[in-house]
Amino acid sequence: MDELANMAQSRTLIELDTDRMIGEKEGGIGWITFNNPERRNAVSLAMRIALIKILTEFENDPDIRVMVMKGSGDKAFVSGSDISEFKDKRSTPEQAAEYQKAGADLDACFDKIQKPLIAMIHGVCLGNGLGTALKCDLRISSDTAMFGIPAARLGLVYNYPGVKRVVDLVGASRAMEMIFTARRFTAQEALQINLVNEVVPFERLEARVREIAALIVENAPISVRAGKLMVKEAMKDAQARDMALCEALVKEGFSSEDFKEGRTAFMEKRRPQFKGR
Fold first, then answer.
1. 255: burial class by Cβ within 10 Å (0-12, 13-18, 19+)?
2. Which of 13-17, 83-87, 93-97, 165-169 shows the lowest per-residue confidence on average (mean pLDDT)?
3. What is the C-alpha to C-alpha distance for residues 259 and 265, in angstroms, rounded to an integer?
């Protein structure tokens, strides 16, 4: 109990203009919570703007080494966009432009994130919620989670970046199945088609995510960052890859204090203490 109390005391909240998003710093982990449980964590315009602030602060904080996204309550990770506000927030061309800009700004923010981002998924993960999960580097799912792209049931068209991420993970045929049928896929189906990295019992979900996050926190931030950037380059067409960047990342690693610490710790048979420089 004392350990749990100390952990709670060590948490730092980010000040936001909405209570429907929560950003917490706990040790080397940045926790991001979609806090709209009455609407199954459907994402509103204000939540998108707050998410940009949280991601930016975590990315710029050297003490945060990994981020975890989760949904509040036990019903959903994120069920999609908050359609209930469309009438008030997207009824004029000006409002629609503002709404679209917030989405574009959020996408750009995700693209700039160089730290690992984990989606901790339970309940429904649909539409924009699935798109959000696919922007993460790792997706750990409970065995009760459900996934889907319901755009065709709403007369909507899923945007190209979202389609591209699905295709990259599951392939063209499975992506078309998800889009054409708009049906829900179980967690086990999601695992089989490579939509998620791992499926665990619901009661083990947070503990498993913490285990993975702890492994990342212990590792050299320079190495982890370089790994993420190189994987992103590897996913590009060959002619578009920035090989100069990849070479620079390798050189940065060899010249870092963390490399010296890792080498020394290995020789001394102790756990390394990485500083991210």
1. exposed
2. 83-87
3. 10
pLDDT for the residue numbered 8 = 44
- Identify whether residues 156 and 239 lie together within a single domain: no
Position 268 pLDDT exceeds 70:
yes
Report if residue 181 sits inside a domain.
yes
Contact 141, 191 (CB under 8 A): yes
Q: Are residue 214 and residue 227 in the same domain, yes or no?
A: no
Residues 235 and 166 in one domain: no
Residue 114 has pLDDT above 90, yes or no: yes
273 belongs to a structural domain: no
d(CA 34, CA 202): 18
- Asked if 139 and 228 sit in the same domain, the reply is no
Please state the three-class secondary structure of 179-223 as a single string.
Answer: HHHCCCEEHHHHHHCCCCCEEECHHHHHHHHHHHHHHHHHCCHHH
The confidence band for 159, taking pLDDT boundaries of 50, 70 and 90, is: confident
Shared domain check, 254 and 198 = no
pTM: predicted TM-score of the whole model, two decimal places: 0.89
